[in-house]
Amino acid sequence: MVSVAFSAREAVSAVSPLLDPIREDLPLDAVTTGILGMLPTAGFAAMGFMALPLVRRIQLEHLLLVAIVLTTLGQVGRALGWTVLAFLAFTLIAMLGIGLVNVVMPPLLMKYFPDKTGGLSALHVTLLGASTAVAAQAAIPLANLYGWRFSIGIWAAFSAIAALPWLIGPAGKGTGTASPNTAPPNAPCSRRNAIKPWRSSIGWGAALIFAGCSSNTFAALTWLPSVLVDKGMSQDTAGSMLALYSILALPVALIVPLLVIQIPRPLPIALLFVVMFAVGYVGIIFAPPTSAMVWVVVAGLGQGAYSFVFTMINKRARTQAGSGVLSGFAQGAGYALASVGPFLFGLLRHSGDGWLPSFGMLGVWLLVLTVGAIMLNRPRVIEDEFPADAAPDGARMPRALPDSRRS
Asked: How many other CB atoms are there within 10 angstroms of residue 114's CB atom?
């Protein structure tokens, strides 16, 4: 799982520092660059919706292996992309793979490590941040040495390596060991007995947090180097600022899950990340370019909202099945909504106001994040909202323990 997490974000951050070199070979304009920026959230959304029925019928280990193959294939194809359409199409394939990883990882953690979901969620999000930062930092140096195609394609090797343990381990053998405290991973789930997260405030709360956080984060991953270059920063330094922004997911990812899992109503933690995003944006827009690093750091810490919502998925579910369905819906709906953010960010740039309208649009998404955090705040689990769905044959399951006693 460590190698999977580390290989699950390079494809997202490896491109934006290289937009200018790529444009020398492929005619990327503002519209196609906006489409490129929205492909991660669009791909994550599509796979989130597709995963809802998949996690009920296919073993999680097999789904994870499919996800890694898609990620690898997409990155190789994108590096070879000979037209804008091919470049975008293979980018979408890679994002579909990463989206499937996002969906199956929470229930896999609950399946194999039901008593350690907080710590392992922290490790997972930490490695996501590390891989995002490494790819962003290495993009320009690798492109200078070997060209932009090599720079964005080399990360496929990490995805291929991540597949090996699953080929010879649980996925290859077709076996898995579930905790006795969780539902069977492939237990049949009829339409009558299906948990319906779209009819739950828990489901929509998690979805809105994903929407608010992802619209902000992926807009930055796509456009932050361009914003900083417009303010007078060199391209190399702007790429380093993107790496710094990405790596800041690490410290919060280590701490946030351990706090969230212990607090019955963790709303103040989510609001702190909203404030971080907002303050960082104000500094990036209005402060002198020499202080840009400070404001990139502040905004980067707002990414802790990811760690918050990934932890809350398992905190607001009692069973592996509940975690999987909640994860799929929240990411499908959330990322679908968030696709608007990266697409509009570049289009809203105005010659007179610069990037101010673009950041104003991200402020609206911060309000969406806040609403989602409020909806998810009250202590309960999604299985209790669908009591007939949480146990086979319509049997009622015991009610959840109070949050203070759940890990």
From this structure: 18
Tokens of 95: 């994002």
Position 147 scores a pLDDT of: 92
The answer for residues whose C-beta is within 8 angstroms of residue 92's C-beta and 6 or more apart is 39, 42, 43, 74
d(CA 161, CA 234): 34
Task: Judge whether 122 and 307 are in contact, CB under 8 Å.
Answer: yes
Cite the DSSP H helix spans in 28-83. 30-57, 60-80
HSE of 322, CA atoms in CB hemisphere, 13 A: 28
Cα angle 46, 50, 53; round to 5: 160
Q: Quick check: pTM over 0.85?
A: no
CB 56 within 8 A of CB 172: no
Largest alpha-carbon pair distance within the chain?
65
Closest CA to 247 of 187, 293, 199, 308: 293
pLDDT digits (tens, 9 = 90+) for 283-319: 999 998 889 999 999 999 999 998 899 889 888 988 8
